[in-house]
Amino acid sequence: MRRPAFGFTAVLVIAGVASGFGQGAPAGQAPAADSQRGQRTFTTNGNGGIVDAPAQQGQRGQRGQGAPARPAPPAPRGPNGRVILSQPPGQPGLWIGGITNLTNADGSPIKVPYQPWAQAVAQDRRQNAFEPHTRCKPSGGPRQFLTPYGVEFVETPDLQRMYIFDIGGPHTFRIIYMDGRQHPKDWTPDYYGHNVGHWEGDTLVIDSVGYNEKFWFDRGTHPHTEKLHIVERITRMDMNNIRYEVTIDDPGAYTEPWSGQFNLRYVPGDELFEYVCQDNNFAPQLMLGVLESVDRSSPIVP
């Protein structure tokens, strides 16, 4: 596996696996046809920012495009009869969320119920900001899944916990407590918050609070406060597809709760591997945030 290397020209190509930089490909940009596993392409936007070009479209999960679509096999199930979110035992595989944004169930854009200040911050971010993920910061909520590199679910029945591991960004993991505990009263806000989960049939429901304000919770530019409360519903529809649904409730930033969704697809044969964002990020101006205007950010904008 070759390590990624950055070169700042009109287009950056990163061989290896990067950290999930950028906000998404520019409108109308065609996917790059990269052939190497893990190759990542970026372009510069009109404001000097770096944005994704979805190079992974031609690499993972797109094999045999000319073949007619076949119905996916049913979702695997454990000894208790409940669906499992991980790959079958002994088989490598990952879930890919890609570089999409949250949408309504029909794919249409969400009308986000911003408070006035939050709408102004969101608009400012679209024009000026690098998201904290570009500086190797963890990303809680939906953003953890929205990279081209993959996540893995690991359930540990003895510990009554679910772990969600990811390659992108800081190569971290998230713990979902499945033992029926409640959220603590004295939680110190952090990037992933405090997560408790339970099963409703074949759907994993995760309730999360206790977030800090130092990350973006999706690939949009939506701000949040420490009042953020996220409820995720993760349903494995079949062997190859997960439906991810989320409700965002932050009375500090929005006038009412709002919801969105996207799909994750299963990529057999791929596995998690070590990637240290800080060691492989050769863009120090992103790491240090020196491209950000110090007088532009509000007190709650990272």
Compact description:
The protein has 302 residues and is mainly beta. Helix content is 7%, strand content 25%. The radius of gyration is 19 Å and the shape is globular.
Number of strands: 12
Rg estimate, integer Å: 19 Å
What general form does the structure show?
globular
Helix content class: under 10%
Indicate the proportion of strand residues: 25-35%
Q: What is the count of helical runs?
A: 3
Mean pLDDT: 77
End-to-end distance, in Å? 33 Å
The major β-sheet equals: 9 strands, mixed
Describe this structure in words.
- This protein has 302 residues and is mainly beta.
- 7% of the residues lie in helices and 25% in strands.
- The chain has a domain at 93-276.
- The strands form two sheets. A nine-stranded mixed β-sheet has the order 4-12-11-10-9-8-7-6-5, with no helix packed on it.
- It is globular and about 50 Å long.
- Mean pLDDT is 77; it is low at 1-64 and 293-302.
